[in-house]
Amino acid sequence: MIAVLLILIPLIGGLALFAVRNEDSAKNMALFTSLLVLLVSVLGLSFMNSHGQLNYDKQWLPMLNSRFHIGLDGMGQLLCLLTALSFTLIFLATRNNRYKQANRFYALMLLSQAGLMGVFLAMDALLFYFFWELALIPVYFLSSTWGNEKRIAATFKFFVYTFVGSILMLVGIIFIYFKAHQSFDLHDWYNLKLLPGTQNWLFWLLFGAFAVKMPVWPFHTWQPDAYEHSPTAVTMVLSGIMVKMGVFAVIRWLAPVLPDGFYLWGDTVSLLCLIGMIYASLIAIRQDDLKRLIAYSSIAHVGLMCLAIFASNKSGMQGAMFQMFSHGVNIIGLWIMANAIENKYGTRKISALGGLAQKDPVLAIMLVIIALANIALPLTNGFVGEFMMFNGIFSSTVTKYGVLDMAVAGICIILAAVYTLNMVKKIFYGNSNTLTQSGLPTPAPVLVAMGVIVIIILVTGVYPRPMLQLTSDTVDAILKYMKTSI
After folding, report:
1. d(CA 325, CA 303)
2. Could you check whether the bond before residue 218 is cis, i.e. omega within 30 degrees of 0?
3. Segment 246-299, tens digit of pLDDT
4. Where would I find the beta strands (DSSP E) of 45-128?
5. Cα separation of 138 and 117, whole Å?
6. 248-285 as b/e, with b when 16 or more CB fall inside 10 Å?
7. By C-alpha distance, which of 111, 84, 85 is closest to 18?
8. How far is the C-alpha of 243 from the C-alpha of 114, rounded, in Å?
9. Cα end-to-end distance, the chain, whole Å
10. Which residue of 123, 215, 333, 404 could cross-link 186, Cys pair, CB 3.0 to 4.6 Å?
């Protein structure tokens, strides 16, 4: 029942918000709903620790042999917790943002949360596809309605990329459905042994959709524009949670189902990831727009997660799972900072800022901690995931160039330090100017949200064991299916 509540609460809350007309009431209701979802997610974690995986399985579309089958395993629980926590932080940190027809804005945000929860919980392929689209549709309307002046072009590009990817995925799902004796059940798919030749081309139907969502180079070009021109709250959802849909789907739906295709194309995908990481890092160094810098940073970090997954060992895959949560928390912290700066000073240009630490030392300290986590400093959450991923890449026995992959990926750590620390220096240190002399104090909700993020960064960085235990069994099961299915 807990798995159902994770979907049902934001769904009902979102639909109810369409009837709320007062803006403050809409904000309060959205925040309350997100807190309720967070509470249920934490309860699900405690129940899972004592009762194993939580499932809900009922008849859904009997004519297609599709069931409403959702479940909480370690990876699903981790990402549901990230989704619940992220929406709470987003609603809290953007509380002072003003939106026309605010009830519709917050309603669509909650509907997107319901779709995201469904993606991470679905154990039926058709249900997974349904929630995949449900999560995307509200974001399309949020970006096209509440974005800035170039929102239509950016949203249209986002729509085209995701629509083409979704069509490819649907074709692949239908093909596997008939090969699995007309079953959409996840475990039936795991036990399916497709011919290697079939897996080779089928791999790209599914991976194409997931690569667009992550995004992996060269499927990434929609992302910087969408991040820049969407409302910052929507950008937080896209960057902090929605890109994890692609990483999650590769682990859940691609690797165990198409292991031959996964191994055959592993070096090709690894090359695409490395090109994207270097490219995005170099572009980030040259950025003067704060939102675009964070957007390119996200491409580089997610590229490393994808690279580690294709190492096909426990260290790489578990590190990627840990990093999905860590990156989601850290990147939302950076977006909260960007939103606070834009609201206070009316600009996102890094060159126009400076000396903010003199005016707001608390915000500066928090941002420095989040920035150091973003470049994987030891004792932060970013270090744990990146260390495990690099260990997995180095020790991989299925890729031809594991050591070389690790060396090239290691360059991105240096580049990340360059653009991240340069951003911190230019924004918060040095001399203040005419613009930054007149800033208002940072609102308390923003400081609370960033304070929570800082605590999570330090606690999970110093003591990551509970999160690693949470995902251990899931990784073991997936690797077992990958080996036995060949």
Report:
1. 15
2. yes
3. 899 999 888 888 888 888 888 888 888 889 888 888 888 888 888 888 888 888
4. 54-61, 66-72
5. 14
6. bbbbbbbbbbbbbbbbebbbebbebbbebbbbbbebbb
7. 111
8. 16
9. 35
10. 123
Q: For the chain, how big is the Rg over CA atoms in Å?
A: 21
Contact (Cβ atoms closer than 8 angstroms) between residue 230 and residue 147: yes
Beta bridge partners of 58: 68
pLDDT digit string (tens) for 343-376?
887 777 887 777 787 777 888 888 889 988 988 8
Strands 54-61 and 66-72: antiparallel
For residue 164, how many other CB atoms are within 10 A of its CB?
Answer: 14
Q: Which pTM does this prediction carry?
A: 0.89
Kindly report, residue by residue over 340-352, the tens digit of the pLDDT: 888 887 777 887 7
> Rounded CA gap, 224 and 328, in Å?
17
Encoded tokens for 55: 């499932």
Contacts of 181-185 with C-beta under 8 Å, sequence gap 24+, read: 182/64, 182/65, 183/65, 184/64, 184/65, 184/66, 184/67, 184/124, 184/125, 184/126, 184/127, 185/67, 185/69, 185/123, 185/124, 185/125
Q: Is 140 helix (H, G, I), strand (E, B) or coil?
A: helix
74 and 44 Cβ atoms separated by less than 8 Å:
no
